[in-house]
Amino acid sequence: MAMRYVQKLKPDIGAEDAPGARTSVFGSLNAIGPCRIDHVRLSAAASPVDLHSPTEERLIYVLAGAVALREGANVVRLEANDFLFVPRSRAIVMMGTDSSAQLLDIHVPVTCDLPSLGAAKALSALKGRVDENAFSAHTAHAAEGRAFDTQTLVDRKMGSESIKAFVSLVHPGSGMGLHVHPFDQFYYVLHGQLSVRLGFDAGVMSDGDIVAFPAGLIHSNSNDGAGPTLLLTINVPEVPAGTKGAYTIDLQSQN
Question: Per CATH, which fold does 6-130 belong to?
Fold first, then answer.
């Protein structure tokens, strides 16, 4: 799918890859804000990755394999479909395990001078797992067809200062018509396919595709396939409480 804001991640970890290979997916696009998404391949031989930053918060999402996260004497293990929220100023280190991993490392600058709400949480409390039994119908804005089922991974209520991330189950025949957001939005297709329109471009995303919707870019999406589609969605920054996050575009009324 040749579209400016769409990239496909390398699916396999090969012998030619460095033990701790890191590729920036959207860190260099001028139209995208300060959010950076890296695709990381981490093996047991890789050097530990220091996630500590006084000015950034991060979300680690494991796509395959496993990694270990350590803070002091505390250690948690993340496997495929596990995630970990890393608040700013937390001294957390990521290490490879006996199962080479692929993951997304989403990091966003934060400028809040107040203490981070995630500062006091135990390391284990920052970890979660995608579980379809935890999904609920998304009602924040209407979908065309059946409502998306979603599971929130991290948001302001959970201690994030900027990132809102969730996983969506998009049913066949469902989607969102033309709309815009006041924030940058990213989709990563975990499974299935999704038809997307970005301005004048259109195409079909599939497993391993990641797309960026810059704030203010008119776009739409729909699942035109026969089976459900599972998406990781990242919104940066999360809109203030009580603020509308999606604005429908009606081209018919513009004529």
Answer: Jelly Rolls (2.60.120)
Other Cβ atoms within 10 Å of 29 Cβ, number: 15
- This prediction's pTM: 0.89
Please state, for a pLDDT cut of 90, what percent of the chain lies above it: 56
What's the CA gap between 241 and 229, in Å, rounded? 28
The CA distance from 68 to 1, in Å, is 34
Q: What are phi and psi of 134, to 5 degrees?
A: -95, 0
First CA to last CA distance, the chain: 31
Q: Determine the 3-state secondary structure of 252 from DSSP.
A: helix
DSSP secondary structure letter of residue 44:
T
CATH 2.60.120.10 in the chain: give the residue spans: 6-130, 134-254
Cα within 13 Å of Cα(51), Cβ side:
24
| Beta partners for residue 104, in sequence order | 39, 61
The reported pLDDT for the residue numbered 62 is: 97
As a whole number of Å, the CA-based R_g of the chain is 18
Which CATH code of 3.40.50.300, 2.60.120.260, 1.10.3860.10, 2.60.120.10 fits the domain covering 134-254? 2.60.120.10
